[in-house]
Amino acid sequence: MPSNNKDIFILGIESSCDDTSCAILKNGVLLSNVTANQKIHELYGGVIPELASRDHQKNIVPVIDAALKKANVNLSQINAIAVTRGPGLSGSLLVGLSFSKSLSLALNIPLVEVNHMQGHILAHFIQEENQDIKQPSFPFLCLTVSGGHTQIVKISDYLQFELLAETEDDAVGEAFDKAAKILGLPYPGGPLIDKYAQLGDATKYKFPTPQLKNNNYSFSGIKTAFLYFIQEQTKLNANFVTENLNDICASYQAHLIKYLLKNLLAVSKETSIKQITIAGGVSANSGLRRELESLGNKHQWETYIPKFEYCTDNAAMIAITGYYKYLKQEFCGLEATPLARYDIQNK
Ligand code: KG4
Ligand code: ZN
């Protein structure tokens, strides 16, 4: 591949949960993004941390190898390794972080640590070859919705994040996944609720909306109300779930989306920011994507939604965040340990 000394190649590694992923960037442009999903957790209805770290260990070398081959880049061309340091499962993070340290030491290049949630947000800046993307301008708001987080963040610059609201208990991804489990659907249930919801009546069943003083969220009460609702209805009709699956999914999903967007609208009004983005696994939800557009039209927002493949966990978002940190020479020492919890406001 033609390159000169000024080209900057970043190799990004993501292993915070159950996806092992590697991406290669050249001057901020994505050359490859390869992800190995772990299917084993479907058997258990949730991610088993011990099994996740073992699978990362198995997958990491083939995934990096495939990403390099797809990008047509050699390890000797790489300028820095960007790796997820947290938040996530410690054992899973340890595999990616330890591997990255060894690689940076062996290649004698800097290591850049990345906050996974910052990565989800900066997925909006993933630039593919020969493609122009519409990027948000600063400052913008991001509703980050994943399996472990639900936050509204103000982004004033590539690496400047301010947390404006968050969930006080469960994440919305958990509210999707737990409801799916109650319905007898396999893990992760979010995409399946999305699928069945597209065929159902979203107005059929109602669920409670917690009222918190600030713009924070709470999903544990909604989840419990959903459990009691299903238990009660199943007592009356043993086939209630199978007979009404589409309507249950549509009503529950619509309720979660309405609640997510209600607080986002309140924060947009309070901050007068109309550049609005969503990120994280749940931003793959078709209902949320549609409703965000429609609310945006009503309130003259400029809305931005990442490409489907950059919503769920991927190394492209880690590599792009690493690229911006590399430009600012923000490197990390080999003593860095994984951070199971990692404040998005930390640099
Ligand atoms: O960001 P992510 O891949 O991993 C974490 O960092 O947590 O998010 C995973 C979450 C899971 O809860 C999954 O069910 C949810 O994203 N998810 C969805 C959809 N696709 C993924 N939830 C609702 N609808 C979807 N289409
Ligand atoms: Zn994630």
Give an overview in words.
The protein has 347 residues and is of the alpha/beta class. It has two domains: 9-132 and 311-327, Nucleotidyltransferase, domain 5 (2-Layer Sandwich), CATH 3.30.420.40; 140-308, Nucleotidyltransferase, domain 5 (2-Layer Sandwich). The chain is built from nine helices and eleven strands. It has a six-stranded mixed β-sheet with strand order 5-4-1-2-3-6, sandwiched between helices. A five-stranded mixed β-sheet has the order 9-8-7-10-11, sandwiched between helices. A hairpin with a 4-residue loop joins strand 1 (9-14) and strand 2. The longest helix is centred in the C-terminal third of the chain and has 32 residues, at 240-271. The protein is globular, with a radius of gyration of 21 Å.
Note the topology:
Elements: E1 9-14, E2 19-26, E3 29-37, H1 49-71, E4 80-86, H2 90-107, E5 111-115, H3 116-122, E6 127-128, E7 140-145, E8 150-157, E9 160-166, H4 172-182, H5 190-197, H6 220-236, H7 240-271, E10 275-279, H8 286-298, E11 302-304, H9 316-327
Parallel strand pairs: 1-4, 3-6, 4-5, 7-10, 10-11
Antiparallel strand pairs: 1-2, 2-3, 7-8, 8-9
5'-O-[(R)-(carboxyoxy)(hydroxy)phosphoryl]adenosine binds next to helix 4 and helix 5.
